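Good morning,

Attaching, inline, the backbone tokens for the sequence recovery test we're adding to the shared suite. The designed sequence is right after.
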């Protein structure tokens, strides 16, 4: 099975959301939407980015990984594909670009865990698909330490 086929299979499953909200926000009255817009402002977005980069880098130190990048740059052709340069500075630059510009997406495949960590621009959340027991245990320790909450999303 190719990396892309494996990712497509894993994306069809329920997943855990790592978020700055303690549960899936209700947008019925509009307040949660306004609060999310507030958190998407510069200072709050920068704080989210710093914590998200810290969480992801720590995870990548624990597991072999592959990264699929979908870059969206205004007035340019969209770039998409598997990242060849997996140095820390490159990964940090791409994470910051996706989170702070709120565009594009990084999908981190953890092949030995058969899991995906997805960071979509514009959502201020991280999705974790098909957690292995070891990945779940590590995330359960790291998520609160980075000031995040977690909840399940059903497909």
């Amino acid at each position: 099975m190719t990396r892309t086929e494996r990712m497509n299979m894993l994306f069809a499953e329920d997943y855990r959301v790592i978020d700055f909200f303690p549960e899936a926000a209700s947008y019925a009255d509009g307040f949660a939407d306004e609060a999310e817009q507030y958190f998407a402002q510069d200072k709050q977005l920068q704080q989210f980015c710093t914590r998200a980069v810290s969480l992801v880098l720590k995870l990548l130190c624990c597991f072999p990984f592959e990264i699929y990048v979908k870059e969206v740059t205004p007035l340019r052709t969209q770039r998409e594909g598997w990242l060849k340069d997996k140095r820390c500075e490159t990964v940090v630059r791409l994470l910051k670009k996706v989170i702070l510009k709120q565009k594009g997406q990084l999908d981190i495949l953890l092949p030995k865990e058969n899991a995906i960590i997805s960071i979509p621009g514009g959502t201020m959340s991280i999705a974790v698909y098909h957690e292995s027991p070891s990945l779940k245990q590590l995330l359960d320790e790291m998520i609160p330490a980075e000031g995040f909450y977690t909840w399940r999303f059903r497909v």
